[in-house]
């Protein structure tokens, strides 16, 4: 690969022979005239081309790092808006047969490995190993990032704020159970910014040491997961004790110590903690999805398809909330979510958490916020970040 090294000033490299001739359209194996050895030879050739192109991409990614000069850490090289743009183009180009989800995952891992050439990103999440938060880290940052399992969501905020972690991934809402209020409350006093979002399809499994449902007398899980499986538990384990713990992985660790205990967790937790799948998926809703936020210490430029999270403290006066929302509606700015939480330090005063479409640095949202700022008690932009790529 040494002959592919460049200074960074040359024009784009030419496309490989074989990659410019259009899509190959092989016949189906087993059809008349299909030679299996010839098909395998074609696949081997394509594999060589793919590997060569990935290596060349890694070299160009390294040139990007050199062009930026000597920076302090891996976090200085990471650009979520750029990654979102790359992944959207992957989806736009996809004509099958692989799904958008599969291709996005493949390209995410390639970008993750290329970035890790400088230094792996350190990403805090609610641990221990085997939680859905860890899955969200892998989905957003790829497996080349270094995950830091932490004991609580509050600790994730603290480790990112101190610089021990470059970013953190925290759950904020579930499609069936709604907003996770404890996460929102941390933004009331935290200086951190929201840098991204992850939507994770959540499948819950009943796991135990024996693998027999008749043995189960206690079920451990995070409170949110117990709520997501409430109907299933009522039908299949009505007499079993349900005990909420700090995380699903903590539940799995407890369940591995007794034959009469079980955990509700992701299937990955069964592999991590040596448990058997008793039943699953057991979530009550087919569309069970949890939204996670990526938190960091800096804001990033627009990606072209962004969302902005606001925290607004409103003066106590008639029509105050209307005056906040009207400038958004007048400019046809879509509002995705609004929540109110008690403001710290002021009795019966509330902060409104609002998610809207757009980036704070671009009109029409920029113009609307300038107008809102004139009569709101306080407006904090928690972050403008790329909308989760499907």
UniProtKB/TrEMBL annotation:
Record bears the keyword Disulfide bond: no
Main location: cytoplasm
Keywords, alphabetical: Amino-acid biosynthesis, Aromatic amino acid biosynthesis, Cytoplasm, Isomerase, Lyase, Multifunctional enzyme, Phenylalanine biosynthesis
Gene Ontology terms for molecular function: chorismate mutase activity; prephenate dehydratase activity
Annotated catalysed reactions: prephenate + H(+) = 3-phenylpyruvate + CO2 + H2O; chorismate = prephenate
Entry's Gene Ontology cellular component terms: cytoplasm
SUPFAM superfamilies associated with the record: ACT-like (SSF55021), Chorismate mutase II (SSF48600), Periplasmic binding protein-like II (SSF53850)
UniProt-annotated site: Essential for prephenate dehydratase activity, residues: 290
E.C. no: 4.2.1.51, 5.4.99.5
Listed NCBIfam families: CM_P2, PRK11898.1
Protein name per the record: Bifunctional chorismate mutase/prephenate dehydratase
UniProt source species: Luteimonas salinisoli
Organism ancestry: Bacteria, Pseudomonadati, Pseudomonadota, Gammaproteobacteria, Lysobacterales
